[in-house]
């Protein structure tokens, strides 16, 4: 089975399991989504959703975020990973949105990636989830499952993104990246997982991959 056929079969399974995958980060608009995604690095979505309501009471837009001292921002997000750096980036990001974009989140990858604390994955999430433009953000779940399923070499996230864009139709990218995340969380953990019994890994993973991961369990 070639990669394209394998991706088609995987897509059918994911569509059955998650016909309308929800965005896991609570938000109201592109700005609050951007903040939430920036906070989600090395932190669970659950934790981000716990800290953002109070933060957004005081900083519901770039102007109010830019007006807050970094220490005040840090007080709201202290329990998330890399909080001191994220607090500085949130303030600097808000200031740059005001300076360059009139306080609006730009619908442009290059402009988003030029913001402090916004990398390619974060920009991709905002592009597809806030603006509905095709993008395929690759997080740790997607990166490891693409390798497990033989859809990518797993060499790096850049290669994984390119490979997945090549095997999944563009119109499925937005839903597909969320579906793979949910499948990884709920059905296909990184450790202690019997690939041979998995609904997708059982046939998509190579015998060599199944044997290798079985030895590590």
Which key features would you list for this structure?
mainly alpha; Endonuclease Iii, domain 2; 217 residues; 13 helices; elongated; Endonuclease III, domain 1
Describe this structure in words.
The chain is mostly helical and 217 residues long. The chain is elongated and about 55 Å long. It contains 13 helices and no strands. The mean pLDDT is 95. The chain has 2 domains: 3-20 and 137-216, Orthogonal Bundle (Endonuclease Iii, domain 2), CATH 1.10.1670.10; 30-131, Endonuclease III, domain 1. It is 63% helix and 0% strand.
In short:
It contains 13 helices and no strands. The protein is mostly helical and 217 residues long.
**What count of helical segments does DSSP give?**
13
Give the N-to-C terminal Cα separation: 27 Å
Oligomer: single chain
Q: What are the segments in which pLDDT stays under 50 over at least 5 consecutive residues?
A: none
Helix content: 55-70%
Fold-level CATH name of the largest domain: Endonuclease III, domain 1
* CATH class value of the largest domain: Mainly Alpha
The Rg value, from CA coordinates, equals 19 Å
Decide which structural class fits the backbone.
mainly alpha
Count of strand segments: 0
- In N-to-C order, the SSE pattern is HHHHHHHHHHHHH
List the helices and strands and how they pair.
Layout: H1 3-17, H2 30-39, H3 45-58, H4 62-67, H5 70-77, H6 83-101, H7 109-113, H8 120-131, H9 140-148, H10 157-167, H11 173-186, H12 201-204, H13 207-216
């Amino acid at each position: 089975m070639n990669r394209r056929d394998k991706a088609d079969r995987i897509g059918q399974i994911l569509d059955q399991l998650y016909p309308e995958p929800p965005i896991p980060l609570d938000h109201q608009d592109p700005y609050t989504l951007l903040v939430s995604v920036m906070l989600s690095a090395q932190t669970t979505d659950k934790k981000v959703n716990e800290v953002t309501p109070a933060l957004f009471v005081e900083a519901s837009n770039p102007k109010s975020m830019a007006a807050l001292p970094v220490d005040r921002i840090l007080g709201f997000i202290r329990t998330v990973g890399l909080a001191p750096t994220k607090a500085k980036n949130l303030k600097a990001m808000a200031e740059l949105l005001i300076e360059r974009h009139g306080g609006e989140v730009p619908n442009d990858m290059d402009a988003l990636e030029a913001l402090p604390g916004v990398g390619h994955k974060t920009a991709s999430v905002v592009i597809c989830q806030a603006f509905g433009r095709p993008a395929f953000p690759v997080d740790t779940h997607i990166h490891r499952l693409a390798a497990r399923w033989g859809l990518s070499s797993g060499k790096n996230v850049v290669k994984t993104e390119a490979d997945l864009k090549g095997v999944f139709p563009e119109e499925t990218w937005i839903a597909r990246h969320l579906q793979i995340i949910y499948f990884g969380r709920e059905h296909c953990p990184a450790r202690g997982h019997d690939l041979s019994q998995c609904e997708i890994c059982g046939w998509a993973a190579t015998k060599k991959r199944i044997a290798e991961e079985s030895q590590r369990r």
